[in-house]
Amino acid sequence: MQKNAVNQVVVVTGAAQGLGLAIAKNFLSEGKRVVFIDINAKLLNEVKKMNLVKQSGSSKMMFLTVDVSNVSAIKESVQTIMEHWGRIDVLINNAGVRKETSVEKITEDEWNLILSVNLGGTFFYSQAVLDTMKQQKSGRIINISSFGGQAGPLSSGAHYCASKAGQIMLTKSFARSLAGQGITVNAVAPAAIQTPEMDNIDPCKLEKMKESIPVQRFGKAEEVANMVSYLASDAAGYITGSTFDINGGLLMR
Ligand SMILES: NC(=O)c1ccc[n+]([C@@H]2O[C@H](COP(=O)([O-])OP(=O)(O)OC[C@H]3O[C@@H](n4cnc5c(N)ncnc54)[C@H](O)[C@@H]3O)[C@@H](O)[C@H]2O)c1
């Protein structure tokens, strides 16, 4: 791995809110340079205005509006990052869309959206950073999967669960193919973490969900971010192809 961890460049997709923002903040607090990728330019602009700039120095941050379901846009963003900072050390594939639609009602458009963002975005962003990481002989890719990709629907549809299960398999495929080149690839599988996304779930369903969580509370975005930071660190160099559960005990394997 790169000796000077402070100068590392970390790319976080879906970084304008929720888990992505918490993950990005954690890396900034470690002194790393962070690229905030999101499809939502307005939200990204709000993040730009946050105190993060004062805390970390604006030179440590880059904001790019990118739709991760668009392969050319992904490639362009990687080119921009390389022109600006000349390296990419860590990629966090976090951008995701969740919908609860029943199997009877999922349309072709909705299927394509979920699969192209959650699974396609993960595949094509990982593919786009490979040359750089291989040349550096070091890199970390961390995919934000889900409990839904392991145990099936809790508050999500078949398309979402299938995309999240696919991310776990992409994790293993990339990990095996890159293991000899200093690049590790892992996934985390959260459940019921408090983020703005939770506002879209019916409050009655949320209450029931909370009662079924063995630790009897929802998770915090920082708890996921801390695991991601560990997986991105030198200390995790012998871990690859693994998926880490962060679910308050909902699923014990
Ligand atoms: N919050 C949870 O409990 C939970 C549980 C399991 C898995 N996850 C996964 O964690 C990730 C983040 O979840 P969250 O709860 O923070 O969600 P969120 O909806 O709060 O944030 C997702 C972010 O991704 C961005 N995004 C959506 N589509 C995009 C696209 N095409 N290109 C680029 N950016 C895009 C959104 O604008 C948003 O900023 C997702 O992949 C989600 O599936 C979350």
Low-confidence stretches: none
- CATH homology superfamily: NAD(P)-binding Rossmann-like Domain
Classified by CATH, the class is Alpha Beta
Helicity range: 40-55%
Largest sheet: 7 strands, parallel
Number of strands: 9
Q: Any idea of the CATH topology? A: Rossmann fold
Proportion of strand residues: 15-25%
Structural class of the helix and strand makeup?
alpha/beta
**Widest β-sheet, arrangement of strands:** 3-2-1-4-5-6-9
Helix tally?
Answer: 9
Question: Which compounds are bound in this model?
Answer: nicotinamide-adenine-dinucleotide
Terminal Cα span: 31 Å
> Would you list the SSEs in sequence order as H and E?
EHEHHEHEHEHHEEHEHE
Number of domains as seen in the coordinates: 1
CATH architecture: 3-Layer(aba) Sandwich
Q: What is the overall silhouette?
A: globular
Overall mean confidence score, pLDDT: 95
Rounded to the nearest angstrom, the radius of gyration is: 17 Å
Brief summary of the model shown:
This protein is α/β, with parallel strands linked by helices. The chain has a single domain, classed as 3-Layer(aba) Sandwich (Rossmann fold). It has 9 helices and 9 strands.
